[in-house]
Each structure stands twice: as C-alpha cells, then as structure tokens.
Known about the structure:
By secondary structure, this protein is an alpha+beta fold. Among the domains are: 5-104, Rossmann fold; 105-127 and 205-329, D-amino Acid Aminotransferase, Chain A, domain 1 (2-Layer Sandwich), CATH 3.30.470.20; 133-202, ATP-grasp fold, A domain (Dna Ligase, domain 1); 495-563, CATH 2.40.50.100. The protein has 15 helices and 33 strands. The strands form nine sheets. The protein has an eight-stranded antiparallel β-sheet, with helices on both faces. The protein has a five-stranded parallel β-sheet with strand order 3-2-1-4-5. A hairpin with a 5-residue loop joins β15 (341-342) and β16 (348-349). The longest helix is centred in the N-terminal third of the chain and has 19 residues, at 175-193.
Amino acid sequence: MTxxxxxxxxxxxxxxxIIRSAKEMGLYTIAVYSDADEDALHTKRxxxxxxxxxxxxxxxxxxxxxxxxxxxxxxxxxxxPGYGFLAENADFAKAIEKKGITWVxxxxxxxxxxxxxxxxxxxxxxxxxxxxxxQQKPSRFQREALKDAESFGYPVALKAAHGGGGKGLxxxxxxxxxxxxxxxxxxESEAYFGSDQIYVEKFIKPAxxxxxxxxxxxxxxxxxxxxxxxxxxxxNQKLIExxxxxxLSEYGREKLKEFTLKIASNSDYVNAGTVEFLADSDENFYxxxxxxxxxxxxxxxxMRYGLxxxxxxxxxxxxxxxxxxxxxxxxxxxxxxxxAEDPNNNFLPTPGTITEYREPTGNGVRIDGWARxxxxxxxxxxxLISKLIxxxxxxEEARSKGIRCLEEYIIGGIPTTINLLIDILKTKEFVNSQIxxxxxxxxxxxxxxxxxxxxxxxxxxxxxxxxxxxxPTLAPQRPKKVGMDLTGNIKNPGIIFAEMQGTxxxxxxxxxxxxxxxDSLFVLEAMKMENVIxxxxxxxxxxxxxxxxxxxxxxxxxxxxxxxx
Length: 565
C-alpha cells in the first residue's frame, strides 16, 4: 500500500501538532514555510518542506495560489489547513478538491454558509434558535453601522463577517469608539480572512462564552463531544479554556447538545466543528458562530474524551465511519495560552528572541508548542508561543496542577502571559467558577513597579494581593525595554516611542493639536493586531513623527506631547 502524503497548510504550534499525529498514523508529512520560518520547528519535524517565500501572511500562509501549487508539486493526497489563515476559506477548500486532493475539513459549501457569520445567523434563526441580535447584512459604510448600533443599543461588537478566533473583533461603547474602530476592524478582517466585510452585533453583558465540539462523518453520524468554557479573555481573545464548564446545569448541557446537533444536521456538516454561544446568568443561550475548522482549544476536549481530534479528522476525510464510537469523558481539563505579550502594557505583542525555554512536566500535563531557546518571535504572525493543558480528576486538582506547571514554565527574554495566568487561577472568582468575558478588564488593576525590581532575563513576574476584595491588584514586573511604552517615561511622560517593529495604520491627530489624556493618537499594527495608542497626558502635540502607512522600528520617537496644566 502506497504511503499517503499530507500537506499541512499552516505554521507554528498547530502545524507541529498536526505533523505529530499524522506521523503516528503512518502518513508522509509535508510542511510549508515562509522566509521568517526557515528554521522553525515544524520544518524540522516534517518529512518534506516546501518553500512559499515571503514573510507576510499574504505572501505565504494566506496565499491561496502558492498553497495549491505546493500541494500539487509535492503530490499531496491530503491537505490539512489547521486553524487561522485559510482554514475557513471555502475557495481554498474548493481549489484543493478540484485538483483531486482530499480536504481535511468540512465541505466547501458548508464552510461558505457557516463561516459567513451573517448567513449562519439566518440558518439558525430558520431552525428556531436565537442568535445574538445583529445585522442581517454587512456594513459597507460607517453610517450603516451607526444606524444599527443605535437600534441595538450600546455596547455593540464590530465583527469580521468571515472571521473567527477573536480576530477582527472590537467591542465599542459609544458612537465615538465605533467611528474610531470601524476601519480598524475592516483592515484586520482583510488581513486575517481576505475579506473586509464586517457587521454589527449586540454585545451581551455580563455573559459567559461557551462552545460545543462535534465530529461528523460522511454517513450522517454526529458525535457530540461536550462543552468548553472560554470566558476568560483579553482583547476579545481567549486566554484560558476548560472542560466541562462547572457552572453549567444538566438542563443547560442538554439544551446546548440539542442546539448543536440541530445546527450540524441542518448544515450537512462533515468533519470537526465548533459551535459558539453566549450565555446569560439565567442560562439563556445565544448563537454566536460556527467555526468550520479545528479550534485552538480542541486539546481540552481531547484530554477528557481520550480522542485525538486531528487523527479523527483525517480518518473522516478518508471515509471512515464514527458510528461505533463509545464516549467516556472523565475528569476536568484546562488549557492556558502562553502568548508573547505584555499584560502590564495593554497586552501589546512583544516580539523578540527567547533566551531560555523550559517546559513543565508531570502526570496529566501536555504542552503543544513550537518554541525553544533561541526561537525568534516575529511581528509577522500570531503571538501564541504554546498551549499548556492540564488534566485532573476534579476541577480543583486541574487548577492546582495548572498553578504548579505555570510556576515551573520558564520563558526568558520576552514578557509573556505566564504570571498573569497564575494570578487569575488564585482569584476567588476563578476558584468559584464565576468568570465572565469581561472579568479580566474589570477586576485587574495594573500598576507600575520600581526599576530596581526588574530582572531582564526572567519572564515578567506578577505579585497579586489576594484578599476578600473582588478587585485584586495585578502588579507585573517588566523587562526594561520591551513593547510599546504607552505611558511615556518617568522623566518625560509625554514621549511615546516604539520599542517594537510595526506599521502606522492610521492617525487621529497632528502636530500642534491639543489633546487630553486618553484621546486616540494613532493606530499601530504589530503581529497582525492593531492597537489604538492614546495620549498619556493632557497637552499639545510638540512632535509628530509619523504618518499613515509608515513602518516604525524599535527605538523610533513617534510623538512628543508638551504638558499643559
């Protein structure tokens, strides 16, 4: 029997994770890589590598023509898209199948209908489910978005119509914020998903974010693989995920199962998929979207159910049935996303070189990552370094194991989310499973620390005073010169300079203009995320050394504000 060849159309953690499972199945693995990833770990673990060229996603991992050519040139039998990039691109799936190559994922028609957030809302409404109140068509212009936002009532979410994973998403609380963020979301949507279509959706607050996992084969069999709580988020992107949600009642579980199976059967779903919901305090569930791909957090489901979802995806794509599967979920699992970003600096990305890397080990501990000592975290791609997944007989055992593992996890040279995660786990809200999607921004207060506390060769340390207060104080240490300084500096608080590479995507002021503390100044794009930089003080713009479209380097002086009292 000829060995089947699988091309992994992705990079980083997910590429490495797919390669490992494919090798265990006896498949010949093919990696693709860009200029920035020439020495990446996924290229070392694959049997064969194909050079895409360029470093930007548009030049490499999001370039449909190059990836289809790669599949042809390497004689691939299957293509697995992973998540992100072109994973939910129906045209990519269709192009692969047109070449006679097996697509590891849903049918192109399903990707198109369910991946389109507006079309999927229409489908679930027809079958009697409640989507979050929102537009029935994309907003092309600001005036359209303003009109609908007013009808729904603020706050609202501006969302990429063809997006997912928290990319191309902004929560806005008033007309001013909507106008400031409208073009940003359009650009992020285009950068991540190849479409600038966005829509307005009512933001439910407070709410929990819960999602359900399915596997479906070509013969109409659907496996329901439980629920995941993904409420702990920052910047509208998940930070901690766990399964099962401890707060969810049996009634709630049955309703979610009913909703999910109904959506899957009515969309002719095949392969792995995830349905996302918002839940209010009364366990009313509102459909958010369906992700027609493997989720970042699929690992917590794997740890409970004893399944390898990547292997199952490949088996289904090859025509296997899941009819005889028996499920026996056990215990509790939690996933922690380890990101290269500074929690003490508005979670700005922190590209740089990892100077020390040591992973935790132990029973019920799993690391899905791609980094090592010497790995360069670039500004071109997502800043996820690894995922730490722990399993315990109980939620408390998993929580305690998570703290131990995070304390053992060493990533030197750049700030990461590690110590923030430790402190979240110690809050009474997390202990009591009382987390909601705005918990982090509402309950953690950032303070600066003295320079003599800083150690530059260790990950950022977090000291948190835990008491009976519902508002603990986060106090991270930071390396001296990492990230974008949004608060100026001690001697001159009006100076804003770049300490990382990026691009100025937009400007909202000019030289000589008066500004107040908190006013938006410009938009900085770094690691494919756009950040609105605000004035640290009241004053007048004395120097304005930036313009739209301008690339900036570490150390560049961007703006100087002369204080006016």
